[in-house]
Amino acid sequence: MFNATAANPTGSDGLNVTKRLRSELMSLMMANIPGVSAFPESDNLHSWVGTIEGPPGTVYEGLSFKLGLKFPNDYPYSAPTIRFDTPCYHPNVDTAGNICLDILKEKWSAVYNVQTILLSLQSLLGEPNNNSPLNGQAAQLWANQEEFKKQVLKHYQPPQA
Amino acid sequence: MWSFPTQHYTTIEDLHLNNGGDYFPFVRAWCEFLDQVAQVHKQAVGSCTNISQQHVFEAAFLRTIPARFESWLQTFCLVVLFLQHNCPLDSDAQRRLAYELQTLDWSTGVTLAEWQCILNAAETQPRPDSLGKTCSFQGTDMDVDLDLELEELWNALPGAESISAWTKTLTVAQYYDTMYYIHTSIRLHAITGVHVLVPAQAWRLVRWVVNAVVTSQCTGDFESSWLGSLLHWVRGPLVRWILTVNPGNGHQPSLDSAVVHHATHVLHETYRELRVTELFRIIVDYPDSLPALQDLKVCLAETQHPLAMADILREDIERRLLHQGVNTLDILAQYIACIKSLRVLDPTSVMAQYVTQPIRAYVRTREDTIHFIVASLVGDDTSLFDDHDLAVVKGSHHSVVYGSDEEDEDNDFDNENWEPEPMEALVIPKSARQRHADVITMLTSIYESHDVLIKEYQRILANKLLQGDHSVLEEALRNLELLKIRFGETSLNSCEVMLKDMGDSRRINQYIHEALASEQIRPSTLESTPSFQFFTGRYLSHLFWPNFREETWELPPVIKEAQQQVERHYQHFKPTRKLHWQPQLGTVELTLTVADHDKSFSVSPFQATLIYHFGQRNSWTIADLATAMNTSPELVRARIGYWITQGVLQTAGLDKYQVVQALPDPNGSSGDSPSNTKRSTTEGDWEDSDADENGSDCSDEEANVDLSAAVGNEEDAGIVSNQDQRAEEMRIYWSFVVGMLTNLGALSLDRIQGMLSMFVQDPAPYSCNERELEQFLALMVREDKLELSGGQYRLK
């Protein structure tokens, strides 16, 4: 009994995380926000797949991007790890799909949830933070929207359904 | 080396048929043959030069025996004769012999121990000098009086006149056969000095006779109790007869009681075996078959409790009852008969639970099951219950409330009638068991939750209330009280509201009619307000009623005006509520004058509107009608048929209809009407229901969502069918389905089912089965939101 507890100190937390993720799923499903969506990949609640559609009026309009969301065992006290699975040409996304977004790093707070993250990422597409780029070339090109869009389409691969 | 007897028969019946029952030549031939074999064998063994040669010969000899001789006794004789010539056997030979004997197929069950005993006896007995003299079979020893006694035996049998001649002859044959065995055993006794076979012969004869008698007398007859009289016969005449014909009896005084005991046991066993194979038919005949059941119960108590019985019955049920060709009502009736009959056999009803498991699982897959259960609960249609069952509901206020804790009964130490649960109980999960649950509970418990039943009841009730007049109300109230006892007060809340709505409607109508009447008195409004007394509304609280099928079409102006008037006064009466008309519900009483004849009809509002238009113009095309009524041509075409069959309308070309005009001048009788159709606005009442009494805070957004197919049968008063409603309820899972399909791509049905049951926990855990999900997804495919290809669903 004690051994089991010692081996898995986060046992009870794990339960709480599951509960929290379940209720986030519930509210996400119920909110039914157009353009963003996420769902657990399999029976593992700690690993989700998300989908965001490019916001209208931006170069990403009409494209949809798949995300991988990994929730740590101490979620929501630590931020989830999120990356683009669909290649995304964007100043704050590197070629491996890693994302530079403050609320996923130092500004993470437990009040954020899947829904807010997805919405933040969607708005990040239209409003990149060019001051701390992961993709310098994209940051420089941002000023030239027409050329930028060409690059976006060149890198974009539609997600396999 | 030796020759077989010329007549060699394989079975006793065969022998009887071919030989006309004359055994003696046959028996004599065999006895001579046996002696001959012994002689030959003696010579053969004598000619063997050494012991190993002898052994080889003996082994071969023994192995040929079972192949050539049908009867084990003949084999036995051979073995004994064989031993007589080879004694003394050394222990090695004995072991070998025992082994050889073991490999023979002994159908008559002489144990190895018995053999051993015989062998030992044969070894210790002094060898008789001359076999032929002491052992020759005396056919004349057979006493003819025994035949007479056999006749007496039959006469003592219950239902003696009906016993077939064939059974009698067979028994005579069997009797002679047995006599032969007995005489042979006497002969063996002379050789060996042991008498071990005599009881075995008696058992054999008893079993045979009892079996023949029970099969011929009781098969298919469930309505009278056989066991008592048979028992009397077996213990009296039969045992006496056995003892008479069994000459070994004198040597063993204990045989008498043993035979009685054995015969009784054999009867119980035989009877049980017969009835168990017939159990399905017995249950079909319940309650007429009660005597057979009670007999069977006695037999079960006397013999071992057979799990096999329940299994046989289960198989029978699955094979004969649970297939497409059987009505749901019949299955349910059989289910109840099954429970009742098995309860005779096993008062704890554990066996009933076990046996009926397949039925319960099966009927759950049938859609009309719920309907039949509820309908018979409220005494509709053909009721599945007799008065006694219903009396249980009415009488006992403490009766088993659904899902009550059954533990109480097991811990009831004061119950003197307590019986232990039979072994089958172990097979059934404790939670599923309901000791002493009454029949209705067993029926309603087919469904794990009684919500479905209540919903069905609600549907039936809604149909009745909306179609019937006020007399229905009283009956409905009575039924509701009965159901409350069974399902508890709270679960039937909405039904109560439905009934209350009906009562309230009457008051509201009265109020509105009075208000309208008082308005008419005032001269200022006299000409503008026609009388709307004919119009009575039903005001339903939509939250508590089942969903209605939405139909849209234009009502005639006179009705619309009436609606507006009623609505105006209703607002006055209940300012916080808003009416939402459901024109497809309700009935219209109208009188039409067709070809000079008045005809009264009670039809749906749609039909009434349809015919109303014919009152305005004599002939219409489908398309024009659809435009006038602001609805789809399909709906019009589907429903106009009613008026044609009623002889009011007739076709006049493609998609064109006109009023039947039997007389050349249709205007003569109706006068004021341009055609011969008259709407009776004065005496008929146009009842148009549904007024929505909404909660006070609700505004006008309470449209009943309904997607079921528009053209349904009108019988059901426009209430959404249960199945569609179920699919409707599953819409709350739709966002989940969209969520997973958006993110995970195409998924198979079981994957979706798995995901839903894993992730949907609030507010209630996901509880639908795969079939329901499939129906729901099919609905979504129909609505063009999904596509299904290769077993995978994907979003459009």
TrEMBL record, chain A:
<feature type="domain" description="UBC core">
    <location>
        <begin position="16"/>
        <end position="161"/>
    </location>
</feature>
<dbReference type="InterPro" id="IPR016135">
    <property type="entry name" value="UBQ-conjugating_enzyme/RWD"/>
</dbReference>
<feature type="active site" description="Glycyl thioester intermediate">
    <location>
        <position position="100"/>
    </location>
</feature>
<keyword id="KW-0547">Nucleotide-binding</keyword>
<dbReference type="InterPro" id="IPR023313">
    <property type="entry name" value="UBQ-conjugating_AS"/>
</dbReference>
<protein>
    <submittedName>
        <fullName>Ubiquitin-conjugating enzyme E2 C</fullName>
        <ecNumber>2.3.2.23</ecNumber>
    </submittedName>
</protein>
<dbReference type="Pfam" id="PF00179">
    <property type="entry name" value="UQ_con"/>
</dbReference>
<dbReference type="InterPro" id="IPR000608">
    <property type="entry name" value="UBC"/>
</dbReference>
<keyword id="KW-0808">Transferase</keyword>
<comment type="similarity">
    <text>Belongs to the ubiquitin-conjugating enzyme family.</text>
</comment>
<keyword id="KW-0067">ATP-binding</keyword>
<keyword id="KW-0012">Acyltransferase</keyword>
<dbReference type="InterPro" id="IPR050113">
    <property type="entry name" value="Ub_conjugating_enzyme"/>
</dbReference>
<dbReference type="GO" id="GO:0061631">
    <property type="term" value="F:ubiquitin conjugating enzyme activity"/>
</dbReference>
<keyword id="KW-0833">Ubl conjugation pathway</keyword>
<dbReference type="GO" id="GO:0005524">
    <property type="term" value="F:ATP binding"/>
</dbReference>
UniProtKB/TrEMBL annotation, chain B:
<dbReference type="GO" id="GO:0007091">
    <property type="term" value="P:metaphase/anaphase transition of mitotic cell cycle"/>
</dbReference>
<dbReference type="Pfam" id="PF26557">
    <property type="entry name" value="Cullin_AB"/>
</dbReference>
<protein>
    <recommendedName>
        <fullName>Anaphase-promoting complex subunit 2</fullName>
    </recommendedName>
</protein>
<dbReference type="InterPro" id="IPR016158">
    <property type="entry name" value="Cullin_homology"/>
</dbReference>
<keyword id="KW-0131">Cell cycle</keyword>
<feature type="compositionally biased region" description="Acidic residues">
    <location>
        <begin position="684"/>
        <end position="701"/>
    </location>
</feature>
<feature type="region of interest" description="Disordered">
    <location>
        <begin position="662"/>
        <end position="701"/>
    </location>
</feature>
<dbReference type="GO" id="GO:0031625">
    <property type="term" value="F:ubiquitin protein ligase binding"/>
</dbReference>
<keyword id="KW-0132">Cell division</keyword>
<dbReference type="InterPro" id="IPR036388">
    <property type="entry name" value="WH-like_DNA-bd_sf"/>
</dbReference>
<dbReference type="GO" id="GO:0070979">
    <property type="term" value="P:protein K11-linked ubiquitination"/>
</dbReference>
<dbReference type="InterPro" id="IPR057975">
    <property type="entry name" value="TPR_ANAPC2"/>
</dbReference>
<dbReference type="InterPro" id="IPR036317">
    <property type="entry name" value="Cullin_homology_sf"/>
</dbReference>
<dbReference type="Pfam" id="PF08672">
    <property type="entry name" value="ANAPC2"/>
</dbReference>
<dbReference type="Pfam" id="PF25773">
    <property type="entry name" value="TPR_ANAPC2"/>
</dbReference>
<dbReference type="GO" id="GO:0006511">
    <property type="term" value="P:ubiquitin-dependent protein catabolic process"/>
</dbReference>
<feature type="compositionally biased region" description="Low complexity">
    <location>
        <begin position="664"/>
        <end position="676"/>
    </location>
</feature>
<dbReference type="InterPro" id="IPR059120">
    <property type="entry name" value="Cullin-like_AB"/>
</dbReference>
<dbReference type="GO" id="GO:0005680">
    <property type="term" value="C:anaphase-promoting complex"/>
</dbReference>
<feature type="domain" description="Cullin family profile">
    <location>
        <begin position="440"/>
        <end position="644"/>
    </location>
</feature>
<keyword id="KW-0833">Ubl conjugation pathway</keyword>
<dbReference type="GO" id="GO:0051301">
    <property type="term" value="P:cell division"/>
</dbReference>
